[in-house]
Design a protein that fits this description.
The complex is a heterodimer of chains A (about 110) and B (about 475). Chain A is α+β, with helices and mostly antiparallel strands and about 110 residues long. Chain A has a single domain, classed as Alpha-Beta Plaits. Chain A is about 20% helix and about 35% strand. Chain A is built from two helices and six strands; from the N terminus they run βαββββαβ. In chain A, the strands form two sheets. A four-stranded antiparallel sheet of chain A has the order 2-5-1-6, with helices on one face. A two-stranded antiparallel ribbon of chain A has the order 3-4. In chain A, helix 1 packs antiparallel against helix 2. The radius of gyration of chain A is 17 Å and the shape is elongated. Chain B has a single domain, classed as Ammonium transporter AmtB like domains (Ammonium transporter fold), CATH 1.10.3430.10. Chain B has 17 helices and four strands. In chain B, the strands form two sheets. In chain B, strands 1-2 form a two-stranded antiparallel ribbon. In chain B, strands 3-4 form a two-stranded antiparallel sheet. Chain B is globular. In chain B, about 60% of the residues are buried. Classes of the chains: A alpha+beta (about 110), B mainly alpha (about 475). The interface between A and B is medium-sized, with 8 and 16 residues.
Chain lengths: ~110, ~475
């Protein structure tokens, strides 16, 4: 099992969710985050006071999938979240040792 | 509030004519229509302060200091209301010296529902209690304007002490100097007595009486400075006190290095708009009568404000490349400030010019000058209120000229519009501006020092980092 973590542009969330649902991923955790990569930040000006805002608002999604689903998941996210501009985000894949569904006690693959 | 208004000329002449035929010195009557308008204006000015100014300022600070600003503004309204009733009204609006009134109306002594206050027309009085309340809202908003200059770093205890001292020693004297006069009925009676005096001795006595009535006025009033609704008393006064405070208390921790962006320009938009709405009470209410003069003040308060907002927005767009919401809102407030002294004197086209000028001048002060000098006037109390007030005070001296569409200045002794003299009027206006700058600038500096010795002006660095809401008030503005 793996956790696929993706940082995406906030307005791409719905498209990514639809793409994941289409390939059979039925669970997703979403967090509002801030950060920067190559996109850097932007400048804000308030009555002449200029501020370099280096942390941009992004959405972090996390999905737990079976190992053989990882490539399909990455494809789905990449296709849906891509605009081709700097700032589209990144995907990280992390090993997942164990999973439990709290309601039933089911474990690992059955819990996903 | 104004003191010489041409619109009263016709009414005054009519009133004089009518009453001359019946009784020599008829007791002035209260006009219910004027009273109704002044009751309305009074609550409109309160609306400017709470929630208007509170939200305008609150939106501009960081969310950790939102409540502290709301509290400071609300405190000003409440404490000044009490002081005004106890002795403030008496010090500002009774005769005494040229610089301060006396205590004859302290604790509202002798002020009853039957008491009358003069307007700008003969025999058109309003209830003194509504005049008292109307002026109270002016006394309340002025110190509330100051707190924007040292927002996000002043101890609440320091503000709690500073505000009562400041209104007592700075505001009441300035209000007295600019606005206190004997009123049109007193002058009219003295003029009639002079005209009726038969022989030389009686004429001398009547002339002495008229001189005495004319001398019963504030120092700046007698210099001939005109200030319709408080450009000097409210805005220059608060603006210079704010600058002195910002200089003495020092910059906020992290100023110029850390992000200090406004936490909610939405609130600032709501606040600025409520200020505009309430300002009709401030400016049109300062006419004291629901007459053509009030309509002129209302018209000017519309067009000058819109012109200043557009001037700031387009200037910023041209220079910086973007039209900002905060720029348009700041321009609107600058326009309101500048039109305050001019509202009942300028013609509408003059008011538009005044608005266009002040929008650009205040933008220049809030950006270029402030950054060049490097003071941390958190919410631009100096750049908008003091500078805008000075532009307005000097502009009023120009725009009152009937040749430029202005109303001219009523001379109650002759009952006619006085001849306009540019140089004389501008010198008068400068007296008003400079007296206020010096009195409030030096006086405020002394008061800040006194407060610093007694309770300390500034919170410590940890408190400032944590934010004043949790540390000073043990509350958060937003629990989400």
């Amino acid at each position: 099992m793996k956790i696929v973590m993706a940082i995406i542009k906030p307005f791409k969330l719905e498209e990514v969710r639809d793409a994941l649902t289409a390939i059979g991923v039925h669970g997703l955790t979403v967090t509002e985050v801030k950060g920067y990569g190559r996109q850097k930040g932007h400048t804000e000006i308030y009555r002449g006071a200029e501020y370099a805002v280096s942390f941009l608002p992004k959405i972090k999604i996390e999905v737990a999938v079976a190992s053989d689903q990882v490539d399909k998941t990455i494809d789905a996210i990449t296709t849906a979240a891509k605009t081709g501009q700097i700032g589209d985000g990144k995907i990280f894949v992390i090993n997942l040792d164990h999973a439990v569904r709290i309601r039933t006690g089911e474990a690992d693959a059955a819990a996903l | 509030m104004t003191f010489k208004r041409p619109y009263s000329a016709g009414l005054a002449a009519l009133a004089v004519g009518l009453f001359a035929a019946t009784a020599a010195y008829a007791e002035p009557t209260v006009n219910k229509g004027d009273n109704a308008w002044m009751l309305t204006s009074t609550v409109l000015v309160l609306l400017m302060t709470i929630p208007g100014l509170a939200l305008f300022y609150g939106g501009l600070v960081r969310s950790k200091n939102m409540l502290s600003v709301l509290m400071q503004v609300f405190y000003c309204v409440c404490i000044v209301t009490l002081i005004w009733a106890l002795y403030g009204y008496s010090l500002a609006f009774t005769g005494g010296s040229d610089f301060i009134g006396g205590f004859s109306k302290a604790f509202l002594m002798g002020v009853t529902p039957d008491s009358k206050a003069a307007t700008f027309s003969v025999d058109a009085n309003i209830s003194e209690l509504v005049y008292f309340c109307f002026q109270m809202t002016f006394a309340a908003i002025t110190p509330a304007l100051i707190v924007g200059a040292f927002a996000e770093r002043m101890k609440f205890a320091a503000i709690a002490l500073f505000i009562p001292l400041w209104v007592t020693l700075i505001y009441f004297p300035i209000a007295h100097m600019v606005w206190y006069w004997a009123g049109p009925d007193a002058i009219s009676d003295a003029v009639k007595a002079l005209a009726a005096a038969a022989d030389g001795a009686a004429k001398t006595a009547a002339q002495a009486k008229l001189d005495e009535v004319n001398a019963d006025a504030g120092w700046i009033f007698k210099k001939g400075a005109i200030d319709f609704a408080g450009g000097t008393v409210v805005h220059i006064n608060a603006g210079i006190a704010g600058l002195v405070g910002a200089l003495l208390i020092g910059k906020r921790v992290g100023y110029g290095k850390e992000l200090m962006a406004p936490h909610s320009l939405t609130m600032t938009m709501i606040g600025a708009s409520l200020l505009w709405v309430g300002w009709f009470g401030f400016n049109a209410g300062s006419n004291l009568e629901a007459s053509g003069g009030a309509a002129l003040a209302m018209t000017n308060s519309f067009v000058a404000t819109a012109a200043a907002a557009m001037a700031w927005m387009f200037a910023e767009w041209i220079v910086k490349g973007h039209p900002s919401v905060l720029g348009a809102l700041s321009g609107a407030v600058a326009g309101l400030v500048a039109v305050t002294p001019a509202a009942g004197y300028s013609g509408p086209m003059g008011a538009i010019v005044l608005g266009l000028v002040v929008g650009v001048v205040c933008l220049f002060f809030c950006t270029v000058v402030k950054n060049a000098v490097g003071y941390d006037d958190s919410l631009d109390v100096f750049g908008v209120h003091c500078i805008g007030g000075i532009v307005g005070a000097l502009g009023t001296g120009i725009l009152v000229n009937p040749a430029l569409g202005g109303t001219g200045i009523m001379d109650y002794t002759t009952g006619k519009i006085a001849d306009y003299d540019f140089a004389a009027q501008m010198i008068s206006q400068c007296w008003g501006v400079c007296t206020t700058l010096v009195w409030s600038g030096i006086g405020s500096a002394i008061l800040y020092k006194v407060v610093d010795v007694i309770v300390g002006l500034r919170v410590n660095v940890e408190t400032e980092r944590e934010g004043l809401d949790v540390t000073e008030h043990t509350e958060r503005a937003y629990n989400m």
